[in-house]
Amino acid sequence: MPLSEERSYPSCTELGKARHCLRKPKVEVVAIFPEDSHSPIIYPEALVTAGTNPNASNFLSFLSSPEDGEIFELQGFTVLP
Q1: For residue 2, what pLDDT is reported?
Q2: Is the separation of the CB atoms in 18 and 29 below 8 Å?
Q3: Please, what sign has the CA dihedral across residues 63, 57, 11, 16?
Q4: What is the pLDDT of residues 35-49, one digit of tens each?
Q5: Cα gap 39→42, rounded to integer Å
Q6: Domains of the chain by residue range
Q7: Longest C-alpha distance within the chain, in Å?
Q8: Which listed residue, of 35, 43, 57, 77, carries a Cα 20 to 30 Å from 65's Cα?
Q9: pLDDT tens digits along 4-35
Q10: pTM of the model
Q11: Up-side HSE of residue 41: CA atoms within 13 Å toward CB?
């Protein structure tokens, strides 16, 4: 598999449930690993001091909102406090 294709799929396999991946063309789920077969996957979020995007702070606030938490949970994520 070419590197460009390989990089487009990790989000599918990292979910564990891989539900949203089935909507992508050319994606086939070949295995689902039990949740206890690996340590939890955590996606940290942060603002960087060198950032220049004026919307970054608003986006980070949105990611922490209850509304966004519901969206993540619908996609199979566990939202941490």
Answers
A1: 41
A2: yes
A3: negative
A4: 889 888 888 888 998
A5: 9
A6: 1-39, 42-81
A7: 41
A8: 35
A9: 444 444 455 444 545 555 566 776 778 888 88
A10: 0.49
A11: 15
- Dist CA 29 CA 13 (whole Å): 8
Question: How many residues in the chain?
Answer: 81
What's the token pair of residue 21?
Answer: 């991946």
Q: Is the dihedral of CA 49, 52, 54, 59 positive or negative?
A: negative
Rg (CA), the chain: 15
What secondary structure, in 3-state letters, does the chain show?
CCHHHHHHCHHHHHCCCCCHHHHCCCCCCCCCCCHHHCCCCCCCCCCCCCCCCCCHHHHHHHHCCHHHHHHHHHCCCCCCC
Q: State the pLDDT at residue 31.
A: 82
The residue with tokens 């564990």 is 16
